[in-house]
Amino acid sequence: MVDQNLTLGDAASRFLADLPAKEREVGRQGVHKFVRWFGQGHPVHGLTAPEVANYAARLPSSEADTGKQEAVKTFLAYARKQGWTKTNLTVHFKSRKVKARPSSGAEKSAPEAFLTAQGRAELQAELDALKGKRPAIIEQIRLAAADKDVRENAPLGAAREQLGHLEGRIKELEQVLKSAGVIGKKDEAGLKVYIGDTVLLHDLASGREVRYTIVSPREVDPVRGKISSASPIGQALIGRRNGEMVEVTAPAGKLRYQVKAIER
Length: 264
Prior knowledge:
Elements: H1 8-18, H2 21-38, H3 49-58, H4 68-81, H5 106-109, E1 114-116, H6 117-145, H7 154-179, E2 181-183, E3 198-203, E4 209-215, E5 226-228, H8 232-237, E6 245-250, E7 253-263
Parallel strand pairs: 1-2, 4-5
Antiparallel strand pairs: 3-4, 3-7, 6-7
């Protein structure tokens, strides 16, 4: 049975105590950052897959090789093993990777420059919310800095780190919203599948129906059925019409679908 009273702070302390001494320092840095993001008092059982995926996606790529991210994955696996979470959240902790852009071919790079109208609205809402948090964090820093003993002033360091993370995300969102175009109905008047459309597919092998929304790589959310236009399925669907057969090459083999409906 999941312990609904266990907080992230307590869970992290138990996890770190079980780590070998040589792994504890790196583990402490990564796990404490994770805990500070959600809050010491956040219940462990309350962690959700979208929250974990969102946190991982916002981490700077420079941390990928430091071991901090691996420590968080190990912590999430530990939490599942102890029965603190209902599912293994490790699979949703996928850090952002920087990929080299193709030197030619505007079609492949185009999806990064566009957002759906809904995606833009969601990013704008996130930006407004983050800006709203800024004054409270600045006040935390002011109060923490008033403590004369700065040697063990953990709240001050945590508040400064949180502000730095927040400012970084604000800058990123502002840049995306400034440079990205918006895909709307006027961009595609025909009945072909385009970025921003929701497509109902009939799986020819299983007979089941699945529904995907094609979005830009920045808006991907598997939990909500949003897939990237650059993914194998996304690429196979772009430009298709209602009733057409679609074949997708996947690791498990070839998948065959029929487009049943295109929703806008």
